[in-house]
């Protein structure tokens, strides 16, 4: 099979790039398609503020019949490279048929790009920023991913390893059962609040939440995530993008913002109703009916995804996590939530994983990032 690598250079090519996995996984019960218009915005320099600190190229693999059989993105996050003192080229948005020839052609395109940019290392799959989907699924092929994860066939890892890549780190995902009674967590949270002069932020609606606390939330996020693999500090414009991306989906019952006596944010937790099944029904499109499935999932659900949680270092190990769990836990009981999906956490991020230690939980998905020195 002759493989041609074609760089994406126009809107039509970008649409092909975005739609390829939907074609590859058509009929797969575990695959969750992303909304195509949102994916196009993410990949467009004029729409995504990540391009303030990043650059990238995209390629399609075409077989001798003119059919798309693979895709890949090459990304350089200059801010992150400066932070860690390394010259890293990322690869992401990788999908392909079961063919070593296709994988070799895709990886060769990224490697050539990396060399022209004087990079020393290739790693991935990762995106522009920490909040883009990362990793190749290596465990949990019989599980539906969250809207912030990704499904792939089991053949991905062996074909990538044959290109000279090795494991760099893993993301793990837990499914947590919501306990029937959270009274002891509520009581403990009250003790923690009194002892540390903390309280839940006061806001009556999403607009007030954003006006009073959004800057503090992003400040805590930048501080707490700064040591995590792949994270570079979010600029005000990037924060604005994230705010716009998630604001319409927020339910105040599933959010906790912990503040001190001066109303300064010291920790927060943000969870969202699971959108995985709704996205499957939407089939990659908001219109004409996709948005209806998403609205229904936001209003009635038995599962939530734990999207973000962060606590300032000086307040860690003081029980502040109990305050967050207490607030969101009460919201879960009020709304009939039975399960929590942890979303992807770095395998060595024990501070977050310890949150689930006292609940019934099990690790059911694992995704991997690879690295290669060139």
Keywords:
Aminopeptidase, single chain, alpha+beta, 14 strands
Q: Layout of helices and strands, plus pairs?
A:
Layout (H helix, E strand, L loop, with lengths): L3 E4 L3 H14 L11 H7 L11 E9 L5 E10 H7 L3 E9 L3 H17 L4 E4 L11 E4 L16 H6 L4 E12 L5 H14 L1 E3 L5 H20 L10 H11 L8 E6 L4 E9 L2 H7 L7 H10 L3 E9 L8 H16 L3 E3 L3 E2 L3 H4 L7 E13 L1
Parallel strand pairs: 4-5, 11-12
Antiparallel strand pairs: 1-2, 2-3, 3-4, 5-14, 6-14, 7-12, 7-13, 7-14, 8-9, 9-10, 10-11
Helix pairs in contact: 6-11, 9-10
At a glance:
By secondary structure, the protein is an alpha+beta fold. 36% of the residues lie in helices and 26% in strands.
Mean pLDDT across residues: 93
Question: Outline, from the CA principal axes?
Answer: globular
Radius of gyration using CA atoms only: 21 Å
Helix content: 25-40%
Distance between the termini: 27 Å
Main sheet: strands, sense, barrel? 14 strands, mixed
The CATH architecture term of the largest domain is 3-Layer(aba) Sandwich
The top level CATH class name of the largest domain: Alpha Beta
Instruction: Write down the secondary-structure element order.
Output: EHHEEHEHEEHEHEHHEEHHEHEEHE
Percentage of residues in strands: 25-35%
Number of strands: 14
CATH topology of the largest domain: Aminopeptidase
Number of helices: 12
Q: CATH H-level name of the largest domain... which superfamily?
A: Gcn5-related N-acetyltransferase (GNAT)
Unreliable stretches: none
- Counting structural domains, the number is 2
Query: In terms of structural class, how would the helical and strand content be classed?
Result: alpha+beta
């Amino acid at each position: 099979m002759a493989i041609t690598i074609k760089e994406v250079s126009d809107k039509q090519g970008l649409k092909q790039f975005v739609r390829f996995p939907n074609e590859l996984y058509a009929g797969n019960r575990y695959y969750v398609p992303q909304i195509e218009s949102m994916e196009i915005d993410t990949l467009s320099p004029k729409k995504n503020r990540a391009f303030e600190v990043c650059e990238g190229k995209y390629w399609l693999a075409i077989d001798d019949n003119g059919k798309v059989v693979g895709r890949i993105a090459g990304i350089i996050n200059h801010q992150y490279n400066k932070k860690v003192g390394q010259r890293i080229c990322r690869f992401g948005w990788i999908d392909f048929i079961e063919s070593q020839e296709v994988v070799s052609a895709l990886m060769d395109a990224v490697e050539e790009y990396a060399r022209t940019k004087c990079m020393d290392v290739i790693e991935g799959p990762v995106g522009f920023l920490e909040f883009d989907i990362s990793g190749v699924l290596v465990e949990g092929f019989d599980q539906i991913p969250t809207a912030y994860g990704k499904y792939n066939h089991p053949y991905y890892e062996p074909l990538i390893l044959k290109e000279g890549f090795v494991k760099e780190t893993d993301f793990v995902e837990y499914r947590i059962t919501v306990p029937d009674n959270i009274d002891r967590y509520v009581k403990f949270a009250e003790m923690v609040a009194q002892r540390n002069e903390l309280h839940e932020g006061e806001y009556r609606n999403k607009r007030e939440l954003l006006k009073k606390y959004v800057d503090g939330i992003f400040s805590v996020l930048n501080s707490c995530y700064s040591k995590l693999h792949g994270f570079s500090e979010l600029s005000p414009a990037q924060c604005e993008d994230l705010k716009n991306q998630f604001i319409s989906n927020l339910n105040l019952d599933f959010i906790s913002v912990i503040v001190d006596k001066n109303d300064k944010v010291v920790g927060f937790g943000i969870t969202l109703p699971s959108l995985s099944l709704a996205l499957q029904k939407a089939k990659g499109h908001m219109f004409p009916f996709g948005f209806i499935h998403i609205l229904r999932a936001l209003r009635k659900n038995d599962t939530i995804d734990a999207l973000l949680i962060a606590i300032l270092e000086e307040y860690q190990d003081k029980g502040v996590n109990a305050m967050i769990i207490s607030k969101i836990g009460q919201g879960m009981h009020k709304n009939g939530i039975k399960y929590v999906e942890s979303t992807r956490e770095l395998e060595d991020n024990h501070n977050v994983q310890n949150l689930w230690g006292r609940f019934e939980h099990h690790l059911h998905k694992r995704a991997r990032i690879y690295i290669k020195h060139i």
